[in-house]
Write a structure and sequence with these properties.
Elements: H1 9-22, H2 24-29, H3 35-57, H4 61-77, H5 84-95, H6 100-114, H7 122-143, H8 149-169, H9 171-176, H10 184-189, H11 194-199, H12 205-229, H13 237-256, H14 270-283, H15 300-304, H16 323-332
Helix pairs in contact: 1-3, 1-5, 3-4, 3-5, 3-6, 4-5, 4-6, 6-7, 7-8, 8-12, 8-13, 12-13, 13-14
Family: Belongs to the phytoene/squalene synthase family.
Protein name: Phytoene synthase
Pfam family, one: SQS_PSY
Length: 359
């Protein structure tokens, strides 16, 4: 019997329901993607969501991590568990030639989260962001049919920038959950004691300076990432550009509030999201290609894992004749600032999961 070239529609539907329930922002944004990319992307994000929940909700994180590796063994051997997400992902990884090591890196990032790891330097923090966000950027780029190392480097720039934005936004929330993602050497330079801050997380000019510094690094990477969007298939550009603009807007809101991410959580209003989506749709025709800037050293291992040949991921560009329908669906999305996990997780929720929730 010939190998399937697409997952079973029932399995994809199960993945879609999972995301509708817990990652509604991704589900809404996926409406901007061509159908040929939207389906495998839904499967990929469903696995990321399942993996994060498996680690987050397990009483024994080490066992949960081991179980995820075992599931990947079956997926990459073509003998997945009898689970719709695993069955669908087994086909997606084969058809699109997705590297196993990138998935392993994602799971490593989840393990770092539940292990309470802290990050001494900014480079250490970027290494974490590479695992929980650069991995997703790499895999999504492969689903869109691009394997050029320069395009992958810019995709990693975007993923890391988004994760840095998450961290800047959630300094207070993370501290109240007993977690610090700010580089410890930055805190020392500012005269902040991590232990004292965790015991009593309060906003002051020192925290403002660290949040501003983190967002400046994110903005640098957002600027680098823009050139890579022009190298994506035309039908894929609006969704990726919209995500970039919406996440950057979080930083703009934080700056307007004096970089206070302790007292409240900055959330992009639904109306503003729609405006940014409209801007993305108008801007997405830019034809710039990826720059020759080197990849971040901390993400190079992800790019090295990708074979330049293989994969059936190059999807034909689609027109934007569905725009009105997309806008209507986005407008109907519940105005709740955060739906699901990859946003304001309950105490103990891993940060990695937050890239599958709302901005």
């Amino acid at each position: 019997m010939a190998a399937r070239s697409r997952p079973d529609p029932a399995d994809v539907a199960a993945c879609r329901r999972l995301l509708q329930a817990g990652s509604r922002s991704f589900f809404a944004a996926s409406l901007l993607l061509p159908a040929s990319v939207r389906e495998p992307a839904t499967v990929l994000y469903a696995f990321c969501r399942v993996a994060d929940d498996a680690v987050d909700l397990s009483p024994n994180s080490a066992t949960a991590i081991a179980r995820l590796h075992a599931r990947l063994d079956g997926i990459f051997a073509g003998t997945p568990d009898e689970d719709p997400v695993d069955r669908a992902l087994a086909i997606v990884v084969r058809v699109h030639d997705l590297p196993r090591s990138v998935f392993d890196a994602l799971i490593e990032g989840l393990a770092w989260d539940v292990g309470g790891r802290t990050y001494e330097t900014f480079s250490d923090l970027i290494a974490y962001c590479a695992r929980v966000a650069g991995t997703v950027g790499t895999l999504m780029t492969l689903l869109m049919g691009r394997r050029d190392p320069r395009v992958l480097a810019r995709a990693c720039d975007l993923g890391v920038a988004m994760q840095l934005t998450n961290i800047a936004r959630d300094v207070g929330e993370d501290a109240r959950a007993g977690r610090i993602y700010l580089p410890l050497d930055w805190m020392a330079e500012a005269g902040l004691s991590p232990a004292a801050f965790l015991a009593d997380p309060r906003f002051d000019r020192r925290i403002a300076g660290l949040v501003e510094r983190l967002l400046a690094e994110a903005d640098r990477l957002y600027r680098r990432s823009q050139s890579g969007i022009g190298a994506l298939p035309g039908g894929c550009r609006p969704a990726i550009h919209a995500a970039r603009l919406i996440y950057q807007e979080i930083g703009i809101l934080l700056a307007a509030r004096g970089y206070d991410s302790i007292a409240q959580r900055s959330v992009v209003p639904q109306g503003r999201k729609l405006a940014l989506v409209g801007r993305a749709l108008l801007d997405a025709g830019f034809a710039s290609g990826p720059t020759r800037q080197k990849a971040l050293a901390e993400v190079q291992f992800l790019i090295d894992a990708v074979r330049p040949e293989g994969g059936e991921g190059l999807m034909a560009d689609q027109g934007l004749d569905r725009l009105m329908d997309i806008f209507e669906r986005l407008a109907r999305e519940p105005g709740s600032a955060r739906t699901g996990r990859v946003l304001r997780p309950r105490r103990g929720r891993t940060r990695a999961s937050r890239l599958t929730a709302t901005a």
